[in-house]
Structure formats: structure tokens, C-alpha cells
Amino acid sequence: MSVIRSVFTWVLAATLLIAASQDAAAVLTIRITQGAEGSQPIAIVPFAAESSLPVDVAEIVAADLARTGRFAPVPERDLPARPSEGTQVDFRDWRKLGTENLVIGRVRPEGGAYSVEFQLFDVFKGQQLAGYAIPARNDTLRRVAHKVADLIYEKLTGERGAFATRVAYVTESRGASGNRRYALEVADSDGFNPHTVLESGQPVLSPAWSPDGRRLAYVSFEEGRSAVYVQELSSGRRERVAAHEGINSAPAWSPDGTRLALTLSRDGNPDVYVLDLASRNLQRLTDNPAIDTEPNWAPDGGSLLFTSDRGGKPQIYRVASGGGAAKRVTFEGDYNARAVHSPDGKRIAMIHGSRGSFRIGLLELDTGALRVLTETRLDESPSFAPNGAMVIYASGGRGGTLEAVSVDGRVRQRLSVVSGTVREPAWSPFLD
Prior knowledge:
Elements (H helix, E strand, L loop, with lengths): L27 E7 L5 E5 L3 E2 L7 H11 L3 E3 L17 H7 L3 E10 L2 E10 L4 E10 L4 H17 L8 E9 L5 E9 L6 E6 L3 E6 L5 E6 L6 E6 L5 E5 L5 E6 L5 E6 L6 E6 L5 E3 L7 E6 L5 E6 L6 E6 L6 E2 L6 E7 L5 E8 L2 E8 L5 E3 L6 E6 L5 E6 L5 E6 L5 E6 L3 E7 L5
Parallel strand pairs: 2-4, 2-5, 3-5
Antiparallel strand pairs: 1-30, 5-6, 6-7, 8-9, 8-31, 9-10, 11-12, 12-13, 13-14, 15-16, 16-17, 17-18, 19-20, 20-21, 21-22, 23-24, 24-25, 25-26, 27-28, 28-29, 29-30
């Protein structure tokens, strides 16, 4: 499958994308391909426990911090001691190791559940920086470990961590009979705990998270033509919300979760509409002979970005959420599409095409400065982490993998599945 489209991926939806195997959800594996220079050493001591646990909390915390490229956890074999309480820490041992920070903890049983307790220390000052106790169960212990990593990351960087979030993606594979199988999957941000939301013999694409992280909107061709569905993740209950004649694609949630922006061709030409989910009322935002698609709401809900070839080639435009004249946003390069706002609304990530290559670009909205973040030739589907620190995207140039890059371009990760291809990533909001 080529991601070089005449205009937009979803218009050629039947040629797309992403899936899992028939028997089990496809597990993502993550590898750091580039880290930031001068990664900060940090010592994370195995957490004490009175009995065996289903997961190694300290190992998960270390892996989370390492994946950012900003921290370099000390190998367990090099740890000079195994303290689990602050009174057991001799800071002289850790200063000799040269690490700036130390994490210790324990997992205490509490009435059939657990209390995960940890402390973060500044080694050279000999001071505690943070200390928390978080309740957990067997089935939530991994998520609590991610929360521990979030708290440590935020304390040391001043930026909220996004480890206890999830990623939706689509995989494509071939079944035993040779038929293509598509699956919409949701996994933890580190690729663990994959869950199949939908399996189909027809393409599935464009997953989009509701602002509360409880629902996904997506496009499915299971009935032979495109339709937009909204599915509740906890119950599996789903509802078809758009199945008009022609194209039904590119769902995007409003910041308050009450509306979906969509691309519909119900009136003959692909245009951007807004669907009120409660009343089912449709509002048409664009009305142009060109193809208008791929809407994305500004964080304040006041406007939307969309892709249009009304100027001759695909570029990004902005329109007020109440409608009105559209204003062009991108001018550099002969192809700019599928723009998404950063969580703070100050920049957008998009597919930037130039000289036959399609890479992920980052545009600063206040200055108009454009920075190309990726080096491969066929990249698509950018999605910001909820803290705005990284962008996940699909890279067709590597046979259908997911990649992630920090917004400064210094840290890179590669995410792949054991078999088949994986595309269409969507990073969840914070899950409080």
C-alpha cells in the first residue's frame, strides 16, 4: 500500500491499513532508536515485596523513563545496595555511583490488594523530592507502575508524564485462508495489555479518542461502504453515527466531547461537517468544489484545521467552529495534510510533502516556522502525546510500523508488531 495519495488517505480507504491476528491482539514492541545526548542517570531499586507479584514495578518504571531518551536507568547489577525505605539509604554509596536521583519503594499487601509506596531522592543534596502511596490490585499493578513513572518524570522535568495513557492503532494481517484481517487495537503506551476493539475482513481506519478517553470514533467498511462508529471501550457498546451516501470519514471529537467533525460527501463533494451527537443535527462548515477533509479541533474549540486542495495542492486551512471563510495556514512545501493540534494549541504536526517525500512536520503557529521531524519517505497519521512531548506516527517506508519522535527531534522510538503491519496511531488523552 502506498501512502502517496492523490489527496487524502481516507478517500482511498479501501486500500488501507492496519490490523491484528485473528486469534489474539497484536502486541507492540518498542525500541529506542535515538536518545537525547547526556541522558540523566537515575537509580531505580527493585521494589521490596512480601510475595511474588504479577509484574515488576521497578522494571516498568525504569523502562518508561528510559523510553523518553532523557533518562538512563542504572543497570540493576551495578546498584550498590537494595534499600526499600528512606532510613536504609546511605547517600555516600549512591554519590560514588554518579547518579543524580534515586528511586526506592515497596509493595505492601492491603486486604487482598496492594499499596505501592515509593520515594524519590536527590542523591547529592541527600533530600527526598517526592513520596507517594498508591492503591493497586493485581489487574491494575502495571498501570500504577506507569503512574509512578509519571510522578517521577513530572518531578524531575516539570512536565506531566504520559506513561499511564494508551494508544489506539490498526493492524493488518493475513488469516490462515490468506484473507486480509483488520483489527482496531488499544494498548498501554508501552505496548502491553493490547485489547482488540474490533476485527473485520474490511478496512478499519481513523481511530479518534473522546476527550475523556472512554470512547473511540472510527471508520469501518464492514458493510461494504464507509461508516463512522462510536464505541464505548468498557462495555463494547457501539453506535453507527454517520452512514450517508458517499464518503463518511475522518472523525474528530470536539474538546467537550459532544460533537464530531467529519468529512462527508452526502451533498456531492467531500466537505467538513459537524455532527451533534445528542441531537444528530449536522452543520456544514465548508462548501467548496475542492476536497475538504481531515478536520481537527483547536483545544479551545473555537476553530478547526482541515486539509483542502482548493489552492491546487493539499494544504492546511482553518475555519471557525461556527462556520465562515477559511484561512490558509501552510505555505511551505507542495503537500501539507492531516494536521493535528498540540495539546497547548501552539503548534501543529502534519504530513509535509516535498520533493517526493512525505514526512512529519511541526509548524509553530505563532511564528510560522516549520521543522521536519522525520527522515523516512512515507510517513503519515501524526498524533501528539497528551503532554505534547512526542508525536507518534505511521511509517509506511518501513513496511508498516509506528514511530515516535520528540518535538525537538532528539528522541526516537520504533513500535512494531510481530506479524503484519500497523498504522493509524492515535494517542489517548490523560486518563485520570
